[in-house]
């Protein structure tokens, strides 16, 4: 499709690929610091992407040398069964109507499935003037590709950026694009002196040690097991059922995973993808997943039986188990992502603000994009907890 290189500033060019099999041989060498941009994970997206998603892979070159890689995702919201069934307020109904009618074809530069700055990586230092050009020109090229197919891209979003990056991007071509901040990314920076869960519990104040003990008492009778590839396959239907319950009850969703997503991920990534099943009386009642990303432990998707979650404090126990895994395997940080901010802060995660940029291809709508976005974004009410002595 894109047979030619597209030139930006100086000697920098980029090329857009439709398939992982066509990527340059050195792709994973350049992407070695981020599992979400390496070919095993990208193959998972290609083989088990949500039904309404199409992925594009962007190679960035200096002269003929590959120096950077990036990801883009197109979402067709018309194919979505629902945007989430939890909130039924008037603002949510209006938001869903607007998305369905004025933003149903959306292009993301970055990974819409996860939280964090996972949209691009470079093997050498490159200035933000070049980065802003590459991102915007990539968006233009993919928009043109869909236009030739008779599809108009309504909304283009660039996500997620830590503050220091968004500040730099705004000095260049992002200066006229609306910047938005949604829920913060909850990140747990692990104390490197902790060697076990006992060390972590000893650092908690009495109130939060009591919370830990209460949760563990409720957890009695539930067995947690690290599932092999074969066990993921055996439990695939139930895993998806538990995931889908949580996903459809989220306040807002733009995709649903395919049924074979977790087995494909385990098959492609092996031990770098961990899936833990929770069993009560030999029945699978929950699961959580982790991706090992260099010094960072990335929490991924989870699912649970709602009754068991309430009776046995299953979600809170999952958070403690993720923390234990991070400590015992000497990770520096755990990315807990957005949502459930208060309970995540109660175990030690802290909020880190992230930004995105967004524009609408209808110039009239784009003039008011900031006002529209602010009015549709749900109000955030939560209290940060401080669990340590």
Short description:
This protein has 15 helices and 16 strands.
Key phrases:
7-stranded mixed sheet, 15 helices, 37% helix, alpha+beta, Aminopeptidase, 389 residues, 9-stranded mixed sheet, globular, 2 domains
Low-pLDDT runs of 5+ residues are 82-87
Supply Rg: 21 Å
What coarse outline follows from CA principal-axis ratios?
globular
Give the helix tally: 15
Distance between the termini: 58 Å
Q: Give me the CATH fold name of the largest domain.
A: Aminopeptidase
The CATH class of the largest domain, by name, is Alpha Beta
In total, how many domains does the architecture comprise? 2
| Overall pLDDT score | 91
Measured by DSSP, the beta-strand proportion falls in 25-35%
- Specify the helix fraction band: 25-40%
CATH superfamily of the largest domain: Gcn5-related N-acetyltransferase (GNAT)
CATH architecture of the largest domain: 3-Layer(aba) Sandwich
Structural class: alpha+beta
The major sheet is characterized as:
9 strands, mixed
Number of strands: 16
Topology summary:
Layout: E1 6-7, E2 12-17, H1 27-30, H2 39-48, E3 53-62, E4 65-76, H3 90-102, E5 105-109, E6 120-122, H4 128-148, E7 155-162, H5 163-169, E8 178-180, E9 185-189, H6 197-203, H7 206-218, E10 222-226, H8 229-234, H9 236-248, H10 261-269, E11 273-280, E12 283-293, E13 296-304, H11 306-312, H12 314-328, E14 333-337, H13 341-347, E15 350-352, E16 354-360, H14 363-367, H15 369-376
Report on this structure:
This protein has 389 residues and is of the alpha+beta class. The chain has helices at residues 27-30, 39-48, 90-102, 128-148, 163-169, 197-203, 206-218, 229-234, 236-248, 261-269, 306-312, 314-328, 341-347, 363-367, 369-376; strands spanning 6-7, 12-17, 53-62, 65-76, 105-109, 120-122, 155-162, 178-180, 185-189, 222-226, 273-280, 283-293, 296-304, 333-337, 350-352, 354-360. The chain folds into 2 domains: 6-184 and 353-376, Aminopeptidase (3-Layer(aba) Sandwich); 186-352, Gcn5-related N-acetyltransferase (GNAT) (Aminopeptidase). It is built from 15 helices and 16 strands. The strands form 2 sheets. Strands 1, 2, 3, 4, 5, 6, 7, 8 and 16 form a 9-stranded mixed β-sheet that branches. A 7-stranded mixed β-sheet has the order 10-11-12-13-14-9-15, with helices on both faces. Helix 7 (206-218) crosses helix 12. It is globular, with a radius of gyration of 21 Å.
């Amino acid at each position: 499709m894109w047979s030619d290189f597209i030139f930006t500033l100086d000697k920098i060019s980029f090329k857009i690929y439709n398939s992982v099999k066509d990527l340059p041989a050195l792709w994973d060498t350049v992407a070695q610091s981020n599992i979400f941009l390496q070919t095993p994970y990208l193959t998972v997206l290609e083989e088990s992407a949500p039904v309404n998603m199409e992925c594009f892979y962007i190679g960035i070159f200096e002269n003929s040398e590959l120096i950077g890689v990036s990801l883009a995702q197109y979402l067709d919201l018309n194919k979505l069964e629902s945007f989430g069934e939890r909130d039924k307020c008037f603002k949510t109904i209006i938001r869903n109507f607007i998305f369905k009618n004025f933003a149903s074809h959306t292009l993301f530069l970055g990974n819409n499935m996860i939280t964090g700055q996972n949209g691009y990586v470079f093997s050498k230092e490159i200035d933000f003037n070049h980065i802003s050009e590459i991102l915007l020109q990539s968006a233009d090229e993919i928009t043109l590709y869909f236009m030739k197919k008779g599809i108009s891209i309504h909304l283009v979003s660039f996500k997620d950026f830590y503050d220091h990056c968004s500040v730099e991007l705004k000095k260049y071509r992002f200066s006229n694009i609306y910047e938005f901040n949604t829920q913060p990314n909850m990140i747990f920076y692990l104390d490197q002196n902790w060697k076990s869960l006992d060390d972590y519990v000893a650092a908690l104040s009495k109130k939060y040690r009591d919370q830990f003990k209460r949760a563990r008492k409720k957890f009695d009778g539930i067995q947690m097991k690290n599932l092999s590839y074969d066990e993921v396959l055996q439990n695939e239907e139930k895993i998806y059922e538990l995931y889908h319950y949580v996903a459809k009850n989220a306040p807002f969703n733009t995709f649903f995973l395919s049924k074979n997503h977790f087995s494909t991920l385990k098959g492609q990534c092996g031990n770098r993808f961990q899936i833990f099943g929770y069993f009560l009386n030999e029945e699978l009642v929950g699961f959580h997943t982790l991706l090992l990303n260099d010094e960072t432990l990335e929490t991924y998707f989870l699912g649970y039986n709602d009754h068991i979650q309430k009776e046995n404090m299953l979600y809170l126990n999952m958070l403690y188990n993720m923390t234990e895994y991070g400590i015992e395997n000497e990770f520096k940080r755990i990315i807990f992502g957005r949502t459930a901010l208060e309970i995540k802060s109660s175990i030690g995660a802290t909020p880190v603000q992230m930004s995105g940029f967004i524009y609408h291809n209808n110039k009239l709508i784009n003039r008011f994009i900031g006002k529209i976005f602010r009015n549709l974004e749900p109000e955030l009410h939560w209290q940060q907890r401080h669990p340590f002595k």
